[in-house]
Amino acid sequence: MLYFCRSKDNTHCLRNASKFANIFMAVKKERRSDCPISYVLDIFGDKWTFLVIRDLLLKGKKTYGEFANSDEKIATNILASRLVLLEEENIISKEKDPEKGSRFIYRLTKKGIDLLPVLIEMMKWSAVYDPDTRVPKATAEKARIDRDAFLNQILEDLKKNKYLLA
To answer: Which of 17, 29, 53, 113 has CA 20 to 30 A from 44's CA?
Structure first.
């Protein structure tokens, strides 16, 4: 995200606005249409948001630092804006870490957990079409053979703080 400023010699310059992400993200966009696909794309239509959901749901990550250390190396300003967006959409919640007051713990809400079938379908699709996928064949096969049992097992494991990709 960028903003304009004036330098001493009265020229315009661009600066990184990551520290202003909360201000910019607080402005709600007007919906383009009532199309359900458009609604989903307004929230998840970038290459980072589903990775944050994946990290919460399937890898057990809970803090900003853990998300920032993901293999994909999301830029800190993008991560901050995605976390704000997901919180505004009530997909995640944020609370202070009781062990370290300067850190926040992020958790999926019911609305966020309801994205599990979407992520599993994405994994199944990738297992078929991406020869370099990290999805273990046994995992993809379980999801393919009995999707509902597979989803229920993941949900049960979540209650025990066990994560599919941890």
So the answer is: 17
